[in-house]
Amino acid sequence: MLEEQRFNTALHDCATFDCGVLSLDEYLAKFASQRRRRGISQTYVLVDSESLRAVLGYYSLSAAQIDAGQISETDRKRLPRYPIPCFRIGRLACQKNQQGKGIGRLLIGSAVARCLKAREEVASDALIVDAKDERVKAFYEHYGFTSCADPPNTLCLPLGK
Q1: For the stretch 13-45, what's the b/e string if a residue is b when 16 or more beta carbons lie within 10 angstroms of its beta carbon?
Q2: Residues spanned by the domain of 58
Q3: Residues 6+ apart with CB under 8 A from 46
Q4: Contact (Cβ atoms closer than 8 angstroms) between residue 7 and residue 45
Q5: Among 34, 59, 30, CA closest to 44
């Protein structure tokens, strides 16, 4: 059974994680714990309950804001004209041998669920992400994210109206 856990270097084997993108592999191995300790971001991993050390995928979340002028006209009408509080997916990656098996969908779903829960305590309007290229942008668009005005590779998913 798959389960999500807060990343912990004492529990999770990040050295063997390989998603095919060196910067995403290095983030988990070298920076995720450091950024958590500094209060910059929090990383969550997806593991199989039969092999808790092996990381199947991960995502990181942090607080963010976006200028109201960057979001769609429809969403802008319901919001004030100053920066809008958001959550940001800073990184999201899936182990190479798990790609194409729905792990990315599970990670996004977990991130959205976590943001909705946090939104009960701390106001936030959307979940945003900066897609690194057109392939990644298409991945997020498939799950309902829409492009912001500028930069065009920043995407936004409203968390409720």
Answers
A1: ebeebebeeeebbebbeebbbebbeeeebbbbb
A2: 2-158
A3: 2, 3, 4, 55, 56, 57, 58, 103, 106, 107, 110
A4: yes
A5: 59
**What pLDDT does 70 receive?**
76
Rounded Cα gap, residues 94 and 152, in angstroms? 24
Rg (CA), the chain: 16
Chain segment 122-136, per-residue pLDDT in tens: 989 899 999 999 999
The tokens describing 55, both together, are: 């990381």
Count of structural domains within the chain: 1
Active site residues: 140
Pick the closest to residue 150 from 84, 82, 78, 69 (CA basis): 69
pLDDT digits (tens, 9 = 90+) for 40-60: 999 999 999 888 899 999 999
Instruction: Centre a 10 Å sphere on the Cβ of residue 159 and count the other Cβ atoms it contains.
Output: 16
pTM more than 0.70: yes
Section 15-33 average pLDDT: 96
Please report, for the domain that includes residue 12, its CATH number: 3.40.630.30
Q: Quick one: average pLDDT of 67-81?
A: 71
